[in-house]
Amino acid sequence: MSIVECAAGRFEGLLEDNYYQFLGIPYAKYYQRWDESIPHEKELDFLATKKGDSAPQTRAINQNQSGVSFFQDNSLSKQSEECLTLNICSKDIQGSSPVMIWIHGGALVTGGSSSIMYDLKSLAKRGVVIVSINYRLGPLGFLRLDEVTDGQVSSTGNEGLIDQRNAIKWIKDNISSFGGDPNNITLFGESAGSWSCNLQIAAGDNGLFQKAICQSGGLDAIATKDKANLWAKLFINQFKKDGNKISDLRSCKWELIINSAKKLKHSALSEGKWVFPEVGFLPVIDNNFIYDDYLETYSSSNIDLIAGTTLDEYKLWSAFHPRIGINDEAYITRRLSKMFESSKLPELISAYKEYLRINDLGNIYSAILTDICFGIPTYKTLQKKEGNSFGYLFSTQSEILRGKLGCFHASELPYVFGVHSKKPYSSWGPKESQEISDNFQIAWTNFSKTSDPSFEDFSWNNYNDSFELALIGNKVRALRNPFLERYELIEKYKIF
């Protein structure tokens, strides 16, 4: 056992294999559902030996977004509204090492810091202090209810982001007692975690952190008040249809809220056009936490940035789709016609056939959606971010389902966290898995230490100056962004 005393209180954690771990630490609280969280007002005397409960989940935790489970993760099974906790892993609690804060993904409706994928020790061994956090999800963290309940529930829709911000503040104020440098903090996250990192920059960093690593998620996951209010109305209507009243919102079991939320259809927001991701539970431009000028705030911030994608992001969904997966041409064309001018579709498809050197329409569709949902938003963040920014591309093909998924969304995570050789992730990658993991971990921790992700034998150039990406695999090499022509074509012909 190990004991740390800091401004927040006294915490008794674990010492295992020369790693100090402090688990399930409460970083903030709220008095009633949908209140903004606030830091704890008194010092805690806390046994920090067990990870905290996950936030209530709006999606099955052991499935991808198509309902297909190719790995089982039961580590998130215990859920509770008392979920505002964090975990710390450090090799040296007497030191002053760079700090990395992991914000998990899951479309803002699922996921948690207790996932077996997020092994904090593997990164901590490289000389950084690693922290992972939980935050409220789905309707409990990202649902704007103020206007649609006539002020009975004064939620802005940004409660989940504010939770994250309070976690960062707690870490800033206390991490020195756990061996971390409070003036050298890097946020990193994937998918919705990447959205979150970008939006924390856009909200104004206020000196709380200095760097961010954004994996497969841009700055586009944000709603206007009007769209947020529309989604809230859909939720309220469903909640009433399920036999509940507005007055029940704060007092009912959280399961009732989650069950109503699961029934909502994102297509109701698309106004005749289909755009992915039409995710309803999104942060909101509320002019309280996120302001109208958030893009300018983002651009002018002093935060150093790494941002990138995987090669085949969207195959995680399209490969399992009952119509896209079997290359249903009529269906795919109909879906694309909701995003692009019908008269221009043949030209767009022909260009992608040439780029990809394939004729399979399902894979062409997947490439277009990869560009729309991940490539272009990431490219725009790199272009918008003034100063020190670095781009990457992960392209190693997964061996899952005989390569059907390619280099899919989230496929880099086992390498980042060093669990690539452990079940169930050992079936994901090639024999060079250890080299891939080393390259990710060296780059990420080098960046956290020095703001430069370069290796001894690889100089990683600033993206703004070169449009140059680091291609990360068992080797690392530079290439000019190969997708710029595709992005231009999409921007030219899209109708959403």
Secondary structure layout plus pairing:
Elements: E1 2-6, E2 9-16, E3 19-26, E4 28-29, E5 38-39, E6 44-47, E7 85-90, E8 97-103, H1 120-124, E9 129-133, H2 138-141, H3 159-174, E10 180-190, H4 192-202, E11 211-215, H5 225-241, H6 254-262, H7 294-300, E12 304-310, H8 315-318, H9 329-337, H10 345-356, H11 361-384, E13 389-394, H12 413-416, H13 433-450, H14 463-466, E14 468-472, E15 476-480, H15 484-493
Parallel strand pairs: 2-6, 8-9, 8-10, 10-11, 11-12, 12-13, 13-14
Antiparallel strand pairs: 1-2, 2-3, 3-7, 4-5, 7-9, 14-15
Helix pairs in contact: 4-7, 10-11, 10-15
Provide an overview of this structure:
- There is one protein chain.
- With 496 residues, this protein is an alpha/beta fold.
- The chain has two domains: 302 residues, Alpha/Beta hydrolase fold, catalytic domain (Rossmann fold, 3-Layer(aba) Sandwich), CATH 3.40.50.1820; 154 residues, no CATH class.
- The protein is 31% helix and 17% strand.
- The chain contains 15 helices and 15 strands.
- Strands 1, 2, 3, 6, 7, 8, 9, 10, 11, 12, 13, 14 and 15 form a 13-stranded mixed β-sheet that branches.
- A hairpin with a 3-residue loop joins β14 and β15.
- α4 packs across α7, α10 packs across α11 and α10 packs antiparallel against α15.
- About 1% of the residues have low confidence.
Q: H/E element string?
A: EEEEEEEEHEHHEHEHHHEHHHHEHHHEEH
Overall pLDDT confidence: 93
CATH architecture assignment name of the largest domain: 3-Layer(aba) Sandwich
What is the rounded Rg? 22 Å
Structural class: alpha/beta
Oligomer: single chain
In total, how many beta strands?
Answer: 15
| Count, helices | 15
Mind telling me the CATH class of the largest domain?
Alpha Beta
CATH topology of the largest domain: Rossmann fold
Tally of individual domains: 2
The CATH H-level superfamily of the largest domain is Alpha/Beta hydrolase fold, catalytic domain
Percentage of residues in DSSP E strands: 15-25%
Largest sheet: number of strands, sense, barrel closure:
13 strands, mixed
